[in-house]
Design a protein that fits this description.
- Helix content is 42%, strand content 19%.
- The protein is of the alpha/beta class.
- The strands form 6 sheets. It has a 9-stranded mixed beta sheet, with helices on both faces. A 5-stranded parallel beta sheet has the order 4-3-5-6-7, with helices on both faces. Strands 17-18-20-21 form a 4-stranded antiparallel beta sheet.
- Helix 5 crosses helix 6.
Amino acid sequence: MTNAAASPADEAEATRTTGAATLPRLFADWVARYGAEPALSRRVDDVFTAFTYDELDRRARVLALSLARELGVCRGELVALISDNRPEWLVCSLAIHFLGAVDVPRASDTPPEILEAILRHAEPAVVIVEAPAQLPQVREALPGLRAAVVIDGPRCPGAGAGGDGALAAGDGACPVYTLAELTTLGEAAWPESAGEVERRRADVLPEDLATIIYTSGTTGAPKGVALTHANYEHNLRELPNLLHIEREPVLTLLQPWHALERQMQLMYLSKGCCVHYSDLLHLRGDLTAVRPVVMATVPELWVKLYKGVFLRIAGLKPARRGLARWLVARSLTSARARRTLSGREPTVRQRGAARRAVDFAWALVEAAALAPFHALADRLVFREVRAGLGGRLRFPCVGGGPLPDAVDEFFDAAGMPLLEGYGMTEAIVVIAMRDPHRRMLRTAGHVIRGMEHRLADEDGRPCRPGDVGRLHVRGPNIMHGYYKDPARTAEVLGEDGWFDTRDLALVHADGSLRVLGRLDDTLVLTNGENVNAPYLENELCANEWIDRAVVVGEGRPYLSAFVAPSRTHLEGLARSLGLNTDEPAALIADERVLKHYRSLVNAISGDRRRFAPYERVHHVRLWLEEFRIGRELSQTLKLRRQEFLRLYSCEIDELYAP
């Protein structure tokens, strides 16, 4: 099973011939095309204020000159960029690329032990941080650091020379500059030295390293994914062919070290879009102010929005609450019928003509009969959902993990079908994506043009359509390797270019890909059955009564689950039972509360349309412990399963005690 419009070797040769596949050259083309138009916009005094592509280019070139002259940054050197999502992040990243240097990005809230491990492994020559408070940790991790730059630091005369200012290095430590100071120095030198940056930009080659992005550490220690300029070019060419956007307002929300967000921001710029910077605190207001056409998100955002709808419904008067829930349920059935009629309901294997005719006829009856109820649900519920997202969001891109089916189906019924994709940092980043004009639910769409894929069973044999196998991919966007780690590179990347994703997947009858989860997340029961734990956990977490769930059962006869209840719903249940809401520990120990959650989990995991009998959860433990980044969770909020099993091995044993 392959999907390739051209061989990776042919595409790589083409990029070498044209010389276009470097980020500096690509960016120069974008500036030439959209120079006077708005590029980046941020909130200033509660109003979005933008600056142009020409200004973005000017700021990045001036900073590049200063990095080269004052800090000695040269081609191939590593520069760590520790900052949250903001225009300055992109300016710094572009400046680093203009010099042919390599950025090593991470967010400001990276847990100290993870950041220290990354810095010690990468050994960057220069570090750019967001705030002065980060400097002590950086200096401790990198005693040989040449220089540091602070984005939000106060102006500090003399600090660059090791003076006595607030950010001065002192004691022989590396000099510390503010971003404003470097910009001023670059502006002063610009009239006579501008040509230096242009020469440096022209010297960058497609095969040069552009970035080293360390993975989130979900399955172990973070790995440094080494990516070249040529790796970036493939997605930057193919993504616009899928989305068909140009000069549209977009909203950026994720952290830019997240490979998806980084690639999306570059893709936005390649099509003349204005990128508006937002965050979770201001998201609701920014959606209505910007009214974006495109926004890259993770599944968790849509799960929260989905639960928020039902939380608002729960606050209605009983009669209206019951009507709203009934209408939504009918609308979900109606949407499924309409997907069948339009050929958007995926099937694992091709069905016979007679079966297709019966399904089509029944869907026609359902769609006609339920149309009035869907229209009423749209008026009472769904219209408000769309308005809250700005009213013109055509491409809500979702990546970083699989969507729960219930959430996927809800937003499709609401007239906001999600554009789910699948990718990895090692493929920077998109491997597959739904067709925006024919969105197949419960899939990640088709593998993008120019990439190949294959599925293999446990013995390495090719899988038949519909069978679950281990996914391998190959293409011009696959990483150079893991930085300074040839052994781990050899484990996943073959000499023939095939990359082992270590993900389990299947291909539907129409060729669309469904990714089921990590091989490392598969639980093997004592009866030999394999359970896709993340899929079950996602469906549990989609329920409004549950905030988070962890399914366990490796080497056990059946499944059990740790369930973190929604505090709002838990307190509401407690009040209805006459319990004291001030003592959460006593609440989750109450047998009536436990019975409610056992029934809920049993109903979800016992749904035969989605789960096999051996996937039913038998025991439930309600869980009030906080899930923390760096311990139970990675920085992308994914469960670190092995760490959870290690931390709570005693509690797991109690679930299986006789």
